[in-house]
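Figure 2 data, in text form.
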Amino acid sequence: MEEPLERLKASTPARIAAGRAGTRPTTREWLVLRADHAAALDAVYGEVPAALLQEHGLFSVDSRCADKEVYLKRPDWGRQLTSEAQDRLRRHCQRRPAVQIVVSDGLSASAVCANLRDILPAFLDALELEGIPPGTPLFIPRARVGILNAVGDILEPETAVLFIGERPGLVSAESLSVYMGYRPRSGKTDADRMVLSNIRKGGTPPAEAGAYLGVLVKRMLEEKRSGVGF
């Protein structure tokens, strides 16, 4: 049995046959578990450095969630922009772009820090290759996926792409998701969106995901649809 068990353990990052000392995990496994749990907490409560936002020219506006505690308790506010944010979008951002890029820490600032430098340039290169000009790239801290509708109501993009940190687990705290949709507006739901998830080291490589996103955006623009009807 040892050989099949070793093959199974090697095929997944899940904790399989980790061992125990009596009724408890071994000291080593317990310490690894505690470290992974701490990394998950850091991902949720961490912040994306301002230097990283400046590096990628991300224009920042706020959701209605003033801090992480509010963000965790009021998902609906994470889908809404403050009045000031709405005014800033109207004043400073390009209207009706072919594709609107939005970045958010979501439930993992660590995911943005670990993946943005690879995935965003790859995506921009793919758009340039396809001749698709992006609008003003945004960073919205403490946002939920539905923030795309709020941005869409104001800027009226043809398509929108949201890079957002996934809920961290005990396998990885650095997993990024990308949600995208055709003409996001009020009333659109998850059924109208598509998603690439598990973008990280050990999952879908971020540079590869960025290149593939360019293909998907081109198809959405050509077919004028997204989501379950895509």
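Caption note: The radius of gyration is 19 Å.
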